[in-house]
Specification:
By secondary structure, the chain is α/β, with parallel strands linked by helices. Helix content is 49%, strand content 17%. The protein has 13 helices and twelve strands. Strands 3, 4, 5, 6, 7, 8, 9, 10, 11 and 12 form a ten-stranded mixed β-sheet that branches. Helix 1 packs across helix 2, helix 2 runs antiparallel to helix 3 and helix 11 packs antiparallel against helix 12. The two termini are 48 Å apart.
């Protein structure tokens, strides 16, 4: 058994910083509208290389044989991934800034400066820069022309992608759900399907079905929505066992669930005995109960709770709903094409509209009602990336994802000149 190798002092710092610098030098070639493409080879060399201009994709692929350099690359990867998930763009700029922080910081430390004072100065400077960027931000709001410009620039100046993202937004609304997927054809197209997005994800990574992107994808699952705390594995197994025997995947959306029950479902999912996923309800208190009822209505099931005179002990498969497809990530759940009765959905929407228009409704409740109505009536836009080869489709899909995220960020906080110009 090999032990840990301990290295400290300037030698360790230099090797870690070298990993940051080498990784940043590879990523920065993609910076800006005139950035170059990067070819990433597959480890097995049996699959065609991936061609991309996305800084985050390049960052994810970088690793070094030197463990200390790899630490530096790992720090850069984490920062690039966080930037991509929160802003959708500027991963290359982020990498270049980190490289400069490391090199300039090391220079000051070598000249005898106190390392804590250097760090404190960097934090103060970053706060000033953040406030400066907010002041200089150009509001976008719902201006489709501005959104199109942001979407096009983020898609490497591809007007086709920019136009498709804006067209999708027009159909589902600027706050609607838009995702990217692969097309079976050469053309990049859009598809709008009815669906709902919940801001809660899977409870255990053992439920993941697609390791490449960390998603649990369930086709035509049986969906159980309950306000009970699930503390008995046996009661739950008695309820889902007939459906498991039919090969149906199971999605459980619940108020609370004991860790032991989650572990049991995760373990059996890993063994292949069943396909399941557990998601906790969104929001708190009465707001959570109302959203859970919305979900049950959308999927054509029943909300199993004591208020409705039901418990998991006295119900059967009739309380389960279904949907055409459900995609669960670490942070969200998207239900595509719920099988609920259109009349019941319309009745629930009318009830929400009447509450929304009530004279005594507060601004807080008004936002809640608007979001719930949008979830029940709005659609989910899908931009399908086309191409002649799998590599081309994957590259285009990554570009579309960046464009969507950048557009959403611009709507929320405005936009500034990119390519590091604002710094």
């Amino acid at each position: 058994m090999s032990g840990k190798i301990i290295k400290n002092g300037s030698d360790a710092q230099l090797e870690i910083i070298k990993g940051v610098v080498d990784a940043a030098n590879a990523i920065k070639t993609t910076l800006g509208p005139s950035g170059k493409c990067v070819a990433i080879s597959n480890a097995s060399m049996t699959v065609e290389p991936e061609i991309t201009r996305d800084g985050a994709t390049v960052a994810k692929s970088i690793s070094f044989s030197n463990p200390y350099m790899n630490m530096g690359a790992s720090l850069l990867r984490k920062a690039a991934a966080l930037t991509e998930s929160q802003a959708g763009d500027s991963t290359s700029t982020c990498s270049v800034l980190i490289k400069e922080f490391c090199e300039k910081g090391q220079k000051f430390v070598k000249s005898g400066a106190n390392i804590n004072e250097v760090k404190s100065g960097m934090l103060k400077a970053s706060n000033w820069v953040r406030d400066y960027i907010k002041k200089k931000a150009i509001p976008v709001d719902g201006d489709m022309e501005k959104i199109k410009k942001v979407a096009t620039i983020s898609a490497n100046n591809d007007p086709e992608v920019g136009n498709l993202v804006v067209e999708c937004m027009k159909k589902v609304g600027i706050h609607g759900v838009i995702t990217a997927d692969l097309s079976a054809t050469l053309d990049t197209t859009i598809d709008v399907t009815t669906g709902m997005k919940l801001k809660r994800g899977w409870l255990s990574p053992a439920f993941i079905t697609s390791q490449a992107n960390g998603l649990c994808e369930l086709e035509k699952p049986a969906i159980l929505v309950t306000g009970e705390r699930i503390s008995s594995a046996q009661i739950l197994l008695n309820l889902i066992e007939p459906l498991c025997k039919e090969g149906r995947p199971i999605l459980i959306i619940c108020e609370e669930i004991d860790d032991f029950v989650v572990s049991m479902l995760a373990y059996n999912s890993q063994l292949g005995n069943l396909r399941a996923c557990v998601v906790k309800g969104v929001d708190f208190g009465d707001a959570r109960k109302n959203i859970m009822q919305d979900v049950a209505t959308l999927v054509g099931g029943e909300y199993v709770c004591s208020e409705n005179g039901m418990t998991l002990n006295n119900v059967g498969r009739e309380v389960f709903g279904t949907a055409n497809r459900v995609v669960i990530s670490k942070d969200s759940t998207i239900i595509y094409e719920g099988a609920g009765d259109p009349d019941k959905i319309n009745d629930r929407v009318e009830l929400l509209v009447s509450r929304l228009n009530a004279p005594d409704v507060s601004d807080y409740d008004k936002v809640k009602f608007e979001n719930r109505i949008a979830s029940l009536t709005g659609g989910i836009g899908i931009v399908k990336a086309g191409g002649a080869t799998e590599a081309e489709k994957l590259n285009r899909k990554a570009t579309i994802e960046d464009s969507i995220l950048a557009s959403k960020s611009a709507i929320d906080e405005g936009c500034v000149p990119g390519c590091g110009y604002i710094y």
